[in-house]
Amino acid sequence: MTLHSKREGIEKPQERESMWFAEDAILWSSALRKLGVTAGITARSHGSMAGSHHPLAEQAENRAALARRLGFDAVVRAKQVHGRDVAYVTAAVEPWPIADALWTDRPGVLLGIAAADCVPVLVADPRGPIGAAHAGWLGTSLEVVRALVDAMVAGGASRDGLVASIGPSIGPCCYTIDAERAEAVRERIGPDALETRDGKTYFDLWSANAAQLRAAGVREVEVARICTLSGGADLWSYRGRGPDGKYGTQLGFIGRPRLKAAVP
User: Fold this and answer.
1) pLDDT over 70 for what percent of the chain?
2) Which terminus of the chain is more solvent-facing, meaning fewer CB atoms within 10 Å of its CB: N or C?
3) CATH 3.40.430.10 fits 6-169+212-255, yes or no
4) Which residues contact 111 (CB under 8 A, 6 or more apart)?
5) Residue 14, Cβ neighbours under 10 Å: how many?
6) Where are the domains of the chain?
7) How does pLDDT run across 96-122, given as a tens digit for each residue?
């Protein structure tokens, strides 16, 4: 799915089929895999990766196990606050930087974005930096993905060479917001991604982030089109939590593997 922003006065192209696929209990981005990048999102079977409803030590071990499985030393995380700040990282650090987007130009660094309905947005230059953003309703209205693209370009990425993939999140089928949030969205990014049905306002996070990526100059935008609430995949959903209110969080991830040393 590739969308241009109407606010930019650019024609909106047609959607295309999702290229995300399931393999080894992980959902993967096909577009980013073609670039030689490791990018996808974990499923519930990997356990919760973040949040307050599971023991922190258990979640840290789940992240460590994922990194080992994917061939990386660790998952590099940020303290996500639903904003638009972007952090450049080269390794896992404590305390985590306060940011909702991360980027790196180092092979061997696995970036992780926690999400249980919010959108994980994964971005890669074919031969350069990679990045990841966390975009809920607030981050989307603050255009966190545009901030990420601008930071990556300032760090050496080719703007018109970037490929982005919008991972599984709550979809336009299910995501309703109240009147106050809807008004904030209209004021910040316009009404294009809002729709009123049955007296409720639905926010299409997928099209809003795709439009922002296109407006930022990204040449290819892939959309998983998998709803965490109703899409049928084995994914955690904040809005799909049980009667006890507990839920888990999956991890959107992207990393460029280290080059293997040549055998003499």
Assistant:
1) 91
2) C
3) no
4) 75, 76, 89, 102, 103, 104, 130, 131, 132, 253, 254, 255
5) 7
6) 6-169+212-255
7) 999 999 999 999 999 999 999 999 999
